[in-house]
Amino acid sequence: MNLLALRYFLEVARYLNFSHAACNLHISQPGLSQQITLLEQQLGFKLLIRTTRSVTLTEEGEYLYKNLIHSFKNIEHVVDELQQLKMIPQKTIKIATVPSAASHLLPGLLCKMKEEFPGIEFYIKETTSLDAIEMVKEKECNIALVRTPTDTRSLVEDQLNFVEFTRHPLQLVVSPQHALASEHSLDLSKLKDESFIHFDKKQSPSLYFLLEQVCQSAGFIPKVLAVGPELLTIANLIAKGIGVTIMPSDMVSLLPPQHIKAIDLENESFYSSISAVWDSSDHLPMITQYALEQLGELCDEEYLVVK
């Protein structure tokens, strides 16, 4: 069935005038007449009664018009809506994120997106970097905000795109009663005898390898007291004087300042950053593209998509 011919018929039935219909359809009147004739032949019955003075609908034509007009109007509405919004009407974006990005980036992003797309719906999943990346791979979310992996080649191998945002220096986190708490900065070699609260190698590989590298650069292997607790648990353990840790400054800012003391590290070039990760195998929806652009602006620096 030629749907275009049906569209032509609906326009003629609307005006009952071939000249007006042809003008609206931007085709010649003879061409329109030919399309209607071919449609009637294909259907096996007349749709229009044409005389030199008028055009009227047959019973079959009137039945067809009444039952098709709303369907075609709906098609036009859907297409117009897509063209105007440049996105699907169901305005939902799903983001999996680590806690620091959820705190620092999401509030500004959500405000901007609500202003640009009234009625937008958000699905936010706070989780580890590893799980967030897996959610993108499984198409369970549009964007993952993660701690930038130490080896980004794994992302490319998994057909994922990523963009790195602002880099954050590392800080030592100790109890306010710790012997080093009065220091504003210190050399890492002073920490060789400290007991560390470490990060889980599987769930937080970036933070795990970062702490390992920092300590090894200072000439020692960290003495591990505990591994893998959540961020607030780490803060509580440190506040009670049960070990120390090293973490990026954006994570430190989430900890209650009255319970911990953050100290800068001297002569260290190590840093950590947040990256946005998304699937490179699919067409990038307009809403996801807009979110990535706004994240870049929120971080106040231009970014480069790594493919």
From TrEMBL:
Keywords (A to Z) from UniProt: DNA-binding, Transcription, Transcription regulation
Gene3D superfamilies per record: Periplasmic binding protein-like II, Winged helix-like DNA-binding domain superfamily/Winged helix DNA-binding domain
Superkingdom assignment: Bacteria
Location of the HTH lysR-type domain: 1-58
Any Pfam family hit: LysR_substrate
GO MF annotation terms: DNA binding; DNA-binding transcription factor activity
GO CC terms: cytosol
UniProt-listed PROSITE patterns: HTH_LYSR
Record family assignment: Belongs to the LysR transcriptional regulatory family.
Protein name per Swiss-Prot or TrEMBL: LysR family transcriptional regulator
Species: Anaerobacillus arseniciselenatis
